[in-house]
Amino acid sequence: MRSLLRLDITSLRAKAGLGLITAVLLTAIVTVFSHAATPQQNTGLTPAITTDALSPSIARGAYLAKAAGCQGCHTDKAEGAIPFAGGRALKTPFGTFYGPNITPDPQNGIGQWSLQDFTRALRLGQRPDGAHYFPAFPYTSFTQISDNDVADLWAYFKSLPPNKRANSAHEISFPFQFRFLVTIWQWLYFKPGAFEANPQLSPEINRGAYLTNALGHCTECHTPRNRLGASRNDRFLAGGMGPEGKNVPNLTPARLKKQWNDAELNDFLSSGQTPDGDVPAEAMREVINNSTGQLTKEDLKALIAYLRSLPALPEEKKEK
Predict the structure, then answer these.
(1) Which residues lie closer than 8 Å to 159 by C-beta, 6 or more apart?
(2) Residues with Cβ < 8 Å from 8, sequence gap 6 or more?
(3) Cβ neighbours of residue 128 closer than 8 Å, sequence gap 6 or more
(4) Which residues have CB under 8 Å from 147's CB, separation 6+?
(5) Which of 15, 111, 156, 257 is the most buried if burial means most Cβ atoms within 10 Å?
(6) CA of 313: how far to CAs of 246, 262, 317, in Å?
(7) Distance of CA 252 to the CA centre of its chain
(8) Residue ranges per domain, the chain?
(9) Among 73, 1, 39, 35, which residue's Cα sits nearest to residue 186?
């Protein structure tokens, strides 16, 4: 989840070689607080989960979709909403973005996509027509998903019942709606490529890193942003202002280890119950219900081991 690139207008103009007007526009590049590159070797990080009703690839894809929290962004909050048929609103300082329909409907979903299209979306943040997605879609994290996991996710989404729900148009203020600005933003801040295990870390911690940084894309909410909306890696997973203007907690040991032991953190991430009987805010409660609470015991243990291995960073200073 990523080195801080603090750029003021002067340094940005110098780096990009742009005129004053473009530099001003760049300060408003849309990024939401919240992917196909050269094929990478599979990292061997996919859990071997199968069911009698599904093929092994689809079953693994279903598990990976839970680990990635796909339902949360691609399912409307309305009662009776069809999973993955789109419509979820994400309000940001730049406007409101709506999660698209990712069922295999040929008109409104991804029914006409190929595996290559799907891979390009995750790895490069590009639509089938080559246009860039806004970073409301967390391809900056999903780019790390392994080839095998991308293929299994694809198999799962293709197995879903098609739904004809039309996609909602984003409601973005000027000039944030111009996608060519995302091209510049990606050039400055986005590094595509599959996850690479750190040989100095244990397999368990590497698995946790993959779950946290690639599939779980925890950095999208738990890492503060700079003025252009890119992750501040000097504050990696250290919390601060979240995607919808709400404060999100510090996930480094500076807070987590002091606040909870491993068993308590496991209980929280699997059930949503804090040691004192409290419950999390709505957004995190949904993450627990749909994602962390669905992980295997081994994966949840690996995720916690990775969080414990992070450098301890203090709470972010409040702006006066």
Answers:
(1) 54, 58, 61
(2) 227
(3) 112, 113, 117, 120, 121
(4) 39, 40, 41, 42, 119, 194
(5) 156
(6) 19, 19, 11
(7) 18
(8) 9-309
(9) 35
Average pLDDT over residues 228-248: 81
**Residue 292: is its pLDDT beyond 90?**
yes
Tell me the whole-structure pTM to 2 decimals: 0.81
Q: Which helix (H) or strand (E) holds 97?
A: strand 95-98
For residue 163, what pLDDT is reported?
A: 97
Please give the single-letter amino acid code of residue 299.
D
Q: How far is CA 47 from the centre of its chain?
A: 20
What is d(CA 282, CA 103) in angstroms, rounded to the nearest whole number? 25
Expressed in angstroms, the distance from the first to the final Cα of the chain is: 28
Of 222, 122, 78, residue with least CA distance to 88: 78
Separation of alpha carbons 82 and 244, rounded Å: 24
**Rounded to whole angstroms, how far apart are CA atoms 47 and 207?**
10
- CB burial of 126-160 (b: ≥16 within 10 Å; e: otherwise) equals beeeeebbbbbbbbbbbbbbbbbbbbbbbbbbbeb
